[in-house]
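Hey,
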Amino acid sequence: MTKNNVWALCGDSQSADQPCSMTSRMGYLRYLLVLPFLAVLPAVADSTKLTLQDAISKAISEDKWLDSSLHRETALRALSQGATALPDPKVNLGLLNMPTDSFDFNQEAMTQLSFSISQNFPAGDTLRLMAEKYSVQGDQLPLERDNRRAILTMEVSKLWLTAYQYEQSIKLVLRNKKLFEQLHDVVESSYSSAYGAAKQQDLVRSELELIKLDHRLAELEQGKRSALFKLSQYIQSSSSSAVASTPIGLDVNSVESLSLSAAAMQKPSSEVLMRRLSQHPMVQMVEARSSIAQVDKALAEQQYEPQWGISLGYGYRGDDLSGNSRADLASVVASVSLPIFSSRNQDAQVKAAALKVEAIVSEKQLVLNELRSKYLTLTSDIELLQGRVELFQRQLIPSYQQSAQTTLNAYTSNDGFFTEVVQARIAILNAQIELLAIRVERLKRLSELNYVLASTAEEVSK
């Protein structure tokens, strides 16, 4: 800071040729320290920045797993349509009972040219059940996609919020760094002035705090870049370096949407909660697997049914040696399987299929219990974090500000130490950063709660 600028800090009543009083200089020092206390995290949305909703939309629209799942569903639907078709019939064409001494077709009465066609029919309702199985498997894939979208929304939200926390912390530190730079200039000017009362240790301490703030900024920038690089794995259209250099903008509507599910489910009854959780894609996926297991059980039971087959044949015979014509031959053959030796194997398959159904029913209850436990844990955490936010806003930060003001008054009255002034200011900065961390942690819990309360696309449309 130049000499003229130093004098300008004292106000218009002092000239550049006349040093300002220590009282005026310390009055400006008090102004520098008190003014930033009322600043609270301005969150202004910017359309050029990477908003939370933009990140979620890009992650979902560019997810290759969702495309792969859609292709698998289409394949299963096609298999379901073709599963009801009967097996292809078999055609046989043969020359029967040809005499080997003369190879004369007309020599023996048994010699004939045979043509036959046969058709097998699967046991019971096997074909219908196979079509149903493919259809139910296809019904499971949209549920998996709903769950995948919910997971992507949660994971991207948490990474975005982490990057946002680092960026806002950087802004807080930069704001305080400007204050410390101005404070350093005032202390340096006071130390070099014949009328100043600043000590050498005050000057050294102010320089040390500036260095520490630079180191803190480097740490925060490293954390922000790490979070953005992790976020880039979900946003494939942008390079990692491009995402890492993208500024984070707070989309107020997107952040408020994180609270939507929690606001809609304020302390529901146990019955209402379990009914809501039963619509979660994970629970619906278990029910779909249960339906598949029931179809498998029905298919196993079809093995007790006989498998039928039918064959139609025609045999052409030539004339006898005297030139008289012989009658052609026709045949009809029906076949049926006799489940005699395979009964033990069939019993084992049916029993295994039935036990699998029971296991999946138990799995559904386990998933519901896990979701309920997560819901209770998250709602408790959110409530406690909100209490901590209110404690910081109503008591801690005002107390830190009052302490800083008291320390500053003592220092300006030559009844305190510059170190205490700096420590008080650093304490306010730490409190503001900790308040930001608590707010972000609460939003992360809300994003996890939204996943727990997620519903399938079909339920949402209702």
